[in-house]
Amino acid sequence: MDGGIEKTNKPEMDKKGKRNGFLSGFSGPAFYKADDRVLHPFSVIVQKEIADHVRSWRFLILLAIISLTCLGSMYTALTSIREAIKPNDPEGSFLFLKLFTVSDGILPSFVVFISFLGPLLGISLGFDSVNSEHNKGTLSRILSQPIHRDYILNAKFVAALIVISVMFFALGFLVMGFGLIAIGIPPTAGEFLRIVVFLIISIIYVAFWLNLSILFSVRFRQPATSALSGIAIWLFFSIFYGMIVDLIVKGMVPQGYATEGQIINFEIFRMNLNRLSPSQLFSDATTTLLMPSVRSLGPLSMIQVMGTIPGPLRLTQSLLLVWPQITGLVAGTIICFVLSYVSFMRKEIRSR
Amino acid sequence: MNGNIIELVDLTKKYGDFTAVDSLNLAVKKGEVFGLLGPNGAGKSTTILMLLGLTEPTSGSVRVCGIDPVTNPIEVKKRVGYLPEDVGFYFNLTGWENLMFTARLNSLSGKEAVAKVNSLIERVGLRDAAEKKTGQYSRGMIQRLGLAEVLLKSPEVIILDEPTLGIDPTGVVELLQLIVRLSREDGITVLFSSHYLHQVQQVCDRVGIFVDGRLIAEGNLKQLSGKLYEGAPYIIEAGVNFDGIDLKNTRPEEWLQEKLRGIEGFIAVKPGADSYNIECQTDLSAVISKTIVMAGAGLNYLNKKEYGLDEIYNRYFEGGRSNGRRH
User: Is the ipTM of this complex over 0.90?
Assistant: First the structure.
């Protein structure tokens, strides 16, 4: 400290009102502090990325949209939860989970909202992660620091994932908290765990879209192109894919005298086609978890159903049922990540 | 290490059929300021990327501080500061924050980082702008911030790729002086790429001229011009005043030619901008001045013409072009 600029701490700067309004209390990443710690470069990049996300307008807008979603779905759930409970309902004891799945038919439920908006969240946090650094001329500068090249990509992914996780858990727990106040029935441990698993699966789902958009951000030089590609794929799966599957399947519907085996095979084929879509995997997984009475995602024969007493599955059984879906989502995420990793490591980084 | 801090042996980089760098051999000594001079697309930036291990050579070997950047880029990047062409900073952060980020990437502790960042900001003259977002910085300020960032890691070598691009003339002078001062004070080796001759001429100890991926000449100015103009005529620049002389309807250079014809070793007179270039085989300045004065003309000045990088540059590029059709 040679008496140069008298500045040892970031918060002093913040007090001058440089940050936008309500974030002025935010003291900035730990790497601005004049302490004795030597931070690992990876954690420095992650900290910076998180700070960037949290301070960006983009994130605030997304946060606002998702918060509105939460409020809206809470409202529908609370107004229609009374009708939702029927006598002898096997899920009667899982009243709390209904907060997330019940809808009044006008506004979609929380789960449907998340499956629709999750991709948007993932795409918008990742679509300019690499190409904007390149366009700003910062990428070659950072890469000439003594760090491994993959730190940048990994840190971008980890930072966005942390932001998403914190956001989802906060929102999920807020919905639980409000629900608790509104309906006055506390969740059981089982319900709580189911909600936690549901939140984790939502995070994986968003992580898939995040990685897809990071992949585009490595491949495409223009952020607009990469954002558009991500949105195109999202729209394709959420609007057109179902239609296309219907079109394919229509010609293959078994005729009136088809055997039971043929019908079952046809149904399985149709479902498998649908399951190529990540949103289908997500909705399969979440409905099973949040509706414990769901026993199978495929067709059941009369013999299988005969003699069963309608009752909820245990959490482990539900998890077992959707394990393939979860694996599929994780695999999709990993494939996107590996593709972007490989193409980023091979890329020659020139200045702008 | 034999005193060479950068050693390139038969370095080649190909992009498909295109050869960006063609069997380059280059050695830069510790503590010198070396200028890489060449037109755009000559392979300067590619060479620099290979020095840092940011791209792999097709063949040949690179040694920076005795380390191979292909197998051990991290060690090289610890010792080499690189200021890329058209460098950018995170414009939503202040200059100070940007430097802190880099400092922490270089594994400095918080205290060291703050002390170093503050002193460097002072040193490059950005103290008043330290708390401004870099989005508001001018191009020259960005370059100075870039220089401060390069110095953060206390490098042994600094590589500057077109550092003066897009800066106004006074900014260029300031930046160049800053670079030279840093190099002299701290004994840092500087590799400096540019296509502006005058800047290279001002600061570099030695120059390497790059055309079409090949280093066609290297050395200091004197060596370069000596190599290039071997056997070329000796040129003396003369400012002559013809007041009170009857030129008898001839042009002044013809009059001069007439008067100087008798001198042994004289070749020709060619008109320059506001002087005359007298070509001869040896240094005849004494005889020439005497002859001109005796003939009754006024001699304003007589100047032995040194070749600047301008001439060298043009000459080499003509050469490089004419024998450079390799593709």
Answer: no
